[in-house]
């Protein structure tokens, strides 16, 4: 077996792309999208009809045409992805709402309604929210309504703890962006898969969850190389770009040992993490603070580009 086939025996593989053709090639269990991936997909010739259909639908509604068309496009691509993958698709709440709990909840409900109107049950959709305190709080409300959530832009232990205590379905702790920060801040360029700070962060979160019996799924994300992926083989899920999926598929070597969920049981904290403590711990972690802020800014920038693309297509 090639390494991709070996990996699928140990972790559920998720395609980190909005490109439907790429998803068909690699047969992942799930797929995850975000504004950056949707913007890239929307520029491809085969997606132009999606843009036109989304705009036509939004114009008939008579509201904010570009905002509604943007949501409709995300749902339309998500729906097509779900015709291919047997599992779930992740669709993201507008990153401009990352610090607005109420607006995030309303946006998520609207996305789910649009999916259901398109014939897709909520059980097949994960709503992506940034791992801010407001995003995690919104997720706790949505989860109680049967709307399952994927908390993204997660870089620290305090974010992971708060997500588990909120009953979030799935988290996407980032790997490569953590490595990027450490390379830039230390000047080092000799990190191995075993010393990679992003790999170590996800390993710590995975072991914390498993040792305390939290059901929240850990899905490693944002990979820079296949070595990081191999080091995290055995993680519940791994979301991987088409380029790295191809590299794994082309490699007939033996997959590295990776993670084990067989860890010593530990008690859960007696008192849940408070908002004040969450904010203090996040603030104390310069890497997590900077990468969370940068990630939100980048998603907003690509959301604006997507909206500009829709405006030009009118």
Notes on the protein architecture:
This protein has 314 residues and is an alpha/beta fold. It has helices spanning 3-8, 20-26, 35-42, 48-61, 65-82, 101-117, 133-144, 157-165, 176-186, 197-212, 226-231, 242-250, 275-284, 286-313, and strands at residues 12-16, 30-32, 89-92, 125-130, 149-154, 170-173, 217-220, 237-240. The model has no long low-confidence stretch (mean pLDDT 96). It has an eight-stranded parallel β-barrel, surrounded by eight helices. It has a single domain (3-313), classed as TIM Barrel. It is 54% helix and 11% strand. The chain has 14 helices and eight strands. α11 (226-231) links the parallel β7 and β8. The termini are far apart. α5 packs across α14.
Question: Gist?
Answer:
The protein is α/β, with parallel strands linked by helices and 314 residues long.
